[in-house]
C-alpha cells in the first residue's frame, strides 16, 4: 500500500488495486477516513469515517485540498485515470 504523504501523524494512502472514483485513505492512530478527491478540480469530500473526530476530519480535508493536484497525479500514476 503506497503511502503518498504523511502529516500530523497521519498517512495518506492510495491502494494499487482500488476502484474509481479517485480517492485516498487517511490512516492514523485514532482511525481512518476515505476522501473522494474529485480530480482534477474538485474539493475533497468525505466518503467514510472510522473513528476520527469532526475537527480532525476538517483539518484533513483542508490538507488534502492544499495538495489536491499532487494527489490526483499520484492516483493517475497508479491507476492511469481519475
3D structure, described in words:
The chain is an alpha+beta fold. The longest helix has 13 residues, at 54-66. A hairpin with an 8-residue loop joins strand 4 and strand 5 (45-50). It has 2 helices and 5 strands; from the N terminus they run E-E-E-E-E-H-H. It has a 5-stranded antiparallel beta sheet with strand order 1-2-3-4-5, with helices on one face. It is globular, with a radius of gyration of 11 Å. The relative contact order is 0.24. It starts with a strand and ends with a helix. It has helices at 54-66, 68-79; strands at residues 3-7, 10-13, 23-28, 31-36, 45-50. The chain has one domain (3-75). Helix content is 30%, strand content 33%.
Contiguous runs where pLDDT drops below 50 for at least 5 residues: none
Q: Please state the CA-atom Rg, rounded to the nearest Å.
A: 11 Å
What is the overall silhouette? globular
The count of DSSP E runs of length 2 or more, i.e. the number of strands, is: 5
What's the main sheet like?
5 strands, antiparallel
Order of helices and strands: EEEEEHH
- What is the count of distinct domains? 1
Amino acid at each position: 500500500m503506497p503511502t503518498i504523504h504523511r502529516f500530523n501523524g497521519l498517512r495518506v494512502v492510495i491502494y494499487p488495486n482500488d476502484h474509481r472514483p479517485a480517492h485516498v485513505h487517511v490512516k492514523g492512530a485514532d482511525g481512518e477516513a476515505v476522501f473522494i478527491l474529485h480530480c482534477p478540480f474538485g474539493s475533497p469530500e468525505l466518503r467514510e469515517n472510522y473513528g476520527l473526530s469532526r475537527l480532525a476530519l476538517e483539518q484533513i480535508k483542508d490538507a488534502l485540498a492544499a495538495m489536491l493536484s499532487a494527489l490526483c497525479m499520484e492516483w493517475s500514476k497508479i491507476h492511469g485515470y481519475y
